[in-house]
Design goal:
Layout lengths: L6 H49 L13 H11 L3 H10 L2 H13 L13 H5 L26
Length: about 150
Amino acid sequence: MFSDIGALELVTLVLLAVLIFGPEKLPKVIQDVSRFIRKVREFSDSAKQDIRSELGPEFKDFEFEDLNPKTFLRKQLAENEDLKELNELRSTFDLKKEMNEVADAVHGRESASASAPAATPAAVNGSGPDLLKKQDKPAADERPPYDADAT
């Protein structure tokens, strides 16, 4: 629970508690806080027991930690025997390769794995600008067009 609190933070908390409550009242405050924490734990344990008893015998192995999505997925994947199919599917799909092919198609370059270029409406009609073709860069002394609406 407090695994990330270092020694300096702990000393600071103790000094702050002594300054706020005083050395006379500090033992009483510590007892009250520990009693409150104990009652909250007892309440949560009894609520868990009530829920387990109401669910019935078919949920005897139910754990409240399984309600955490990460824990639930980890448990389901560990128990699942069909992971071979998932690994085969993962190995057949190469996301980086697919993204490179899409980028090549957008920039108008011929990718190594594409055997035929995709047909665009302009290429089919033979008219209109080829939007997939990379635009020529303007000359060094030529300024790019100014769009007043964009500023």
